[in-house]
Design a protein that fits this description.
The two termini are 12 Å apart. Helices cover 32% and strands 24% of the residues. A 6-stranded parallel β-sheet has the order 14-13-15-18-19-20. Strands 5-4-1-6 form a 4-stranded mixed β-sheet, with no helix packed on it. A 4-stranded antiparallel β-sheet has the order 7-21-22-23, with no helix packed on it. With 360 residues, it is α/β, with parallel strands linked by helices.
């Protein structure tokens, strides 16, 4: 590891703030010039490591994966510039990866919690409503301050999306997580699920495809962010096509949610709802696609700087992680061009520095 690295280009300490003169000394950032000459000088536009706020390191299409696959997933994210991951549910215990200095930082949420028989097989802790509170307490203690609920899924008897748990039980479960010092996020596709989650005091919503105008004031007032996972929502037409023959109502619903995905996220952003970038990598979506998600947010109407902020400075602040500040860990990306004005450059980081070590 180079003891002193000088970053000689523009340093973007926020989406709208730029300064010059930053160094990594022993893996820690400083804006004070060291007495010794740098061992390495990196030139280019500097931003903090990107954040994938909905990622599943240690999860594959069938559930758990071997250690070597989990390691490959983490390395793929790292090499794409994702240096901080908020895990959104995984069967694999990734605490061993958290000890690896060459791997992205991971904030774990433990396993998904779903209704019995109402989620992807092998992914979740499956419970009935009377056992939800106990399951939430257990996962709150097993994770790093987050619990992941599956808020809705197809009910084969009803033939459409239906909430996973009764509203009253949800309120008790969210309170139980808060009592344990954890925040709760929930997978939500359908419209009515969002009302129950907001009533329960949820801390974050994943996907949010059922967002309606009536929801927006509550999201703002309650300070509930959305992680839209737009590159995953792009799979809805294929899901609908596979379901059409047996569940036509569900298929039509999924297509409707997909058709309005962009306008709903733009409406949320314009209303003042916090939006963060997450890929949902790990089951269907391949790892290393955070740049695609940021660009998808821009394509939905978010300004380029806001889309980048959703996967960089703002996301780090939301998760309690340092950005580019005095004394922060040197988790840094360097680009040949200003990524705020050309999001396409996010696919090609010039340099990746993790914990003060040049890894790419």
């Amino acid at each position: 590891m180079s003891r002193i690295i000088e970053f000689s280009g523009p340093v973007l300490t926020a989406a709208d703030q730029e300064r010059r003169g930053m160094w990594s000394v022993g893996g820690v950032l400083t804006f004070r010039r060291p007495a010794a000459a740098p061992d390495l000088v990196l030139d280019g536009w500097v931003i903090p490591g990107l954040v994938d706020a909905h990622c599943h390191i240690g999860l594959g299409p069938g559930g758990d994966v071997p250690d070597d696959v989990a390691e490959e997933q983490a390395a793929t994210d790292r090499d794409a510039g994702t240096l901080l991951v908020r895990d959104a549910g995984a069967v694999h215990d990734t605490r061993w990866l958290q000890q690896r200095a060459d791997m992205p930082r991971i904030i774990r949420s433990g396993r998904h919690i779903a209704r019995t028989g109402r989620y992807l097989r092998g992914f979740a802790v499956e419970v009935e409503p009377e056992n939800l509170v106990e399951a939430v307490r257990k996962q709150a203690l097993a994770g790093d301050g987050w619990v992941k609920l599956v808020g809705d899924w197809i009910d084969r008897d009803a033939g459409d999306l239906e909430p996973s748990f009764p509203a009253g039980v949800l309120r008790d479960a969210v309170q139980a997580a808060h009592d344990e010092g954890a925040r709760v996020t929930a997978h939500c596709f359908a419209e009515d699920t969002l009302d129950d989650m907001l009533d329960a005091g949820i801390d974050c919503i994943e996907h949010g495809t059922g967002l309606l105008p009536r929801h927006l004031p509550r999201f703002v007032e309650q300070g509930v962010p959305i992680v839209p996972t737009l590159i995953n929502i792009a799979t809805f037409p294929d899901i609908a096509a596979r379901a059409e023959a047996k569940f036509p109502r569900y298929a039509a619903h999924m297509r409707s949610l997909w058709e309005r995905r962009g306008e709903r996220i733009l409406a949320a952003y314009e209303a003042g709802v916090a939006i963060y970038a997450g890929t949902d990598a790990g089951s269907v979506i391949r790892h290393g696609r955070i740049a695609d998600e940021i660009q998808a947010l821009h394509a939905a109407g978010l300004p380029a700087r806001a889309a980048l902020d959703a996967g960089a400075w703002a996301a780090r602040a939301w998760l309690g992680a340092d950005g580019l500040s005095e004394g922060a860990s040197a988790d840094v990306l360097v680009y040949a061009e200003d990524p705020r004005t050309r999001l396409g450059t996010l696919d090609q980081p010039k340099h990746i520095v993790l914990r003060g070590q040049l890894v790419h």
